[in-house]
Write a sequence for this structure.
């Protein structure tokens, strides 16, 4: 656990080896950065500290980075803004991928939604578009995420519970009824079965007469973070990554406006990681996909512009802003200097962000509105390209319509009332922020070295490296909360009796609706065409060809999701992780 | 008999892979001196109850965040009964709305810990409840 702690003294406070959960960093000896800082520390700061003492608090970021009482130009000695920051829209993109920041275009306000039947979610989508949302984001239920049809025995009790159920093209047609796939970009949070679900969406668009060249959106399609954190995997790592690379090869040619992957730190953070781990493991995953795609002989500048990212925005305000800026700089540098990308779009890390679900409390849930607002502001100051804000009631149940609307309104307040959008990257040059940005990059690169030493991301997954690192971090955070070393308002401090909240429940009819539609689909489709398409999928998988044309054929033939995933389960096998706590 | 360590099975039923809570609780109970078996992911009710019986545990804790808690607690409670393991303490944690708590209690779920619970509370609860159960079971 202790190896996560920075060993250098770059925090401006000598290595506080003694800084266990209860101690304060301010009790440490003299500072290092430079004579002027040292003078201030000796003449002004220390005497005050001796007289009054410091608060009992952890002066460390949520990632356990030591925070000095003050940052000055001396902390940035040798720091070259031309090299470390550059300019917005230029390498290394620390200050953002768009030269005009939010002056040209605001971020996309994209609220994640999905529950119950495709009919119910379609209604929520239309309400969100009417309320001024600018893109859609689809939550699927657990059976869909795990590649089971709604009528599979493993689906029992889970259909429509934490997302919408989609078992075939017929469900997809209902889900996007009345929504123009050329006008609205859609993000789909789907991973192991991503190829099949994407094909269903594209088949739906084609049947409406849409031109795939004009259809835009994102599939999450990031299987590595499933092995690392969220655990919604089906097949072993190698064939799983192969399916991802199939989309890298097929997508840019056939659906050029589509982001074929959203490399996600969000779930890594939700699993209890630190911000540094989120940053490091996400970029390591992105680099792993690039390496595999290059091994297949793809041209980096053809697929890299379609790689997008997805980060969490948690409570530690400056650390979160630093994380986004460090991510852009690391990605641009790696892509240019290691992987030979030349197209500027290949170097730009474009990202979605979501406020931290894990930070929401069931106690005094209205307080979550404040957390979400501050996190949203951090995401925007970090330069996110797209944002979901959590609803305040999400620690209790699915978000209510009123709470989801309020979350969207929170983004609109940041966008239109705070003035932070008036100038590009307004915090650049802050001694503290630039120090943190550098420190996060340094720690992330140390993780890259560790992962490479194990043999790469897939080897590190199988060896249990990520599970161990994240497990240690989440346990440490829990202990800090249990011992009141870290305060969570309403949970271990400032408690009051919460008012009871109304809770959103999923209509139990979802199962009947889904079963009826599945029965109809299986009865009415051209069964020879369906069998032919599944045979084509099997042969593509067995022979190692690109599976996307076969997935498209399966979608058009109304093959169910479960049928398609069963074919691949037979060919690839299923993965089980070693159990460890 | 009652001074042997408390044995607990922590289980993740169903398709959900969000295991932060289950693992944190498992570690906290272990650090408190209990013997902890963690099932890993994607467990059916049969798998959980089989493990509980084989491992001869005092308590089974289910972690459910997906909204499917009524389904899984019902199945596990019924199977524990059917296997004659109704002396095993069934408890749980996760995102469970208050309004479902009475129905869970009727199923025989002794306690549900909702978000924000301190691990100290879970440890204290098991240290208090398990010995009582052992005494009343040995007496009967």
């Amino acid at each position: 656990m202790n190896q996560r702690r920075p060993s250098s003294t770059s925090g401006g406070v000598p290595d506080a080896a003694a800084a266990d959960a209860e101690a304060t960093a301010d009790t440490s000896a003299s500072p290092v950065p430079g004579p002027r800082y040292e003078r201030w520390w000796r003449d002004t700061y220390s005497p005050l500290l001796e007289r009054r003492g410091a608060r009992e608090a952890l002066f460390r970021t949520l990632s356990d980075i030591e925070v000095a009482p003050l940052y000055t130009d001396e902390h940035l000695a040798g720091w070259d803004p031309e090299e470390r920051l550059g300019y917005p829209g230029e390498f290394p993109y620390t200050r953002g991928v768009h030269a005009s920041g939010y002056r040209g275009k605001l971020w996309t306000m994209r609220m994640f939604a999905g529950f119950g039947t495709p009919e119910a979610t379609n209604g929520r989508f239309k309400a969100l578009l009417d309320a001024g949302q600018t893109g859609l984001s689809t939550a699927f239920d657990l059976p869909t995420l795990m590649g089971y049809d709604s009528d599979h025995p493993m689906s029992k009790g889970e259909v429509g519970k934490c997302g919408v159920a989609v078992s075939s093209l017929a469900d997809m047609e209902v889900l996007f009824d009345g929504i123009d796939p050329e006008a609205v970009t859609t993000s789909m949070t789907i991973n192991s079965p991503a190829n099949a679900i994407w094909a269903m969406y594209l088949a739906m668009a084609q049947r409406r007469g849409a031109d795939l060249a004009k259809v835009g959106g994102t599939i999450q399609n990031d299987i590595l973070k499933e092995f690392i954190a969220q655990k919604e995997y089906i097949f072993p790592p190698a064939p799983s990554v192969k399916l991802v690379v199939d989309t890298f090869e097929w997508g840019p040619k056939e659906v050029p406006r589509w982001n074929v992957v959203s490399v996600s730190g969000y779930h890594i953070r939700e699993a209890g990681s630190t911000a540094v781990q989120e940053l490091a493991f996400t970029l390591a995953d992105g680099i792993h996909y690039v390496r595999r795609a290059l091994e297949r002989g793809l041209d980096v500048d053809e697929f890299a512009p379609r790689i997008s990212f997805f980060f969490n925005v948690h409570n530690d305000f400056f650390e979160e802003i630093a994380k986004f800026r460090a991510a852009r700089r690391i990605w641009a540098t790696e892509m240019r200097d290691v992987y030979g990308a030349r197209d500027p779009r290949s170097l730009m890390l474009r990202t979605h962000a979501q406020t931290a679900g894990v930070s929401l409390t069931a106690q005094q849930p209205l307080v979550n509105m404040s957390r979400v607002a501050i996190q949203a502001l951090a995401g925007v100051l970090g330069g996110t390209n797209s944002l979901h804000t959590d609803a305040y009631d999400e620690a209790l149940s699915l978000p209510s319509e009123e709470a989801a609307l309020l979350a969207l309104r929170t983004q609109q307040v940041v966008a239109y009332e705070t003035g932070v959008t008036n100038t590009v990257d307004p915090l650049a040059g802050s001694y503290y922020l630039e120090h943190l940005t550098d420190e996060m990059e340094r720690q992330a690169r140390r993780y890259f070295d560790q992962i490479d030493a194990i043999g790469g991301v897939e080897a590190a997954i199988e060896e249990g490296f990520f599970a161990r690192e994240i497990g240690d971090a989440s346990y440490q955070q829990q202990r800090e909360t249990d011992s009141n070393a870290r305060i969570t308002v309403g949970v271990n401090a400032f408690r009051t009796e919460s008012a009871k909240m109304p809770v959103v429940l999923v209509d139990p009819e979802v199962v009947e609706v889904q079963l009826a539609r599945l029965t109809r689909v299986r009865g009415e489709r051209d069964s020879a065409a369906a069998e032919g398409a599944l045979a084509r999928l099997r042969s593509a998988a067995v022979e190692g060809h690109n599976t996307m044309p076969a997935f498209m054929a399966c979608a058009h033939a109304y093959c169910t999701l479960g049928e398609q995933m069963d074919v691949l389960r037979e060919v690839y096998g299923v993965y089980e992780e070693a159990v460890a706590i | 008999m009652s001074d042997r360590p408390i044995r607990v099975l922590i289980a993740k039923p169903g398709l959900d892979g969000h295991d932060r809570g289950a693992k944190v609780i498992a570690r906290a109970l272990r650090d408190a001196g209990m013997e902890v078996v963690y099932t890993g992911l994607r467990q059916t009710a049969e798998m959980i109850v089989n493990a509980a019986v084989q491992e001869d545990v005092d308590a089974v804790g289910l972690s459910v965040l997906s909204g499917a808690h009524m389904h899984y607690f019902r199945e596990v409670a019924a199977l524990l009964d059917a296997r004659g393991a109704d002396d095993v303490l069934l408890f749980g944690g996760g995102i469970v709305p208050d309004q479902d708590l009475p129905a869970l209690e009727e199923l025989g779920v002794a306690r549900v810990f909702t978000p924000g619970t301190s691990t100290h509370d879970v440890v204290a609860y098991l240290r208090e409840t398990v010995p009582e159960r052992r005494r009343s079971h040995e007496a009967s």
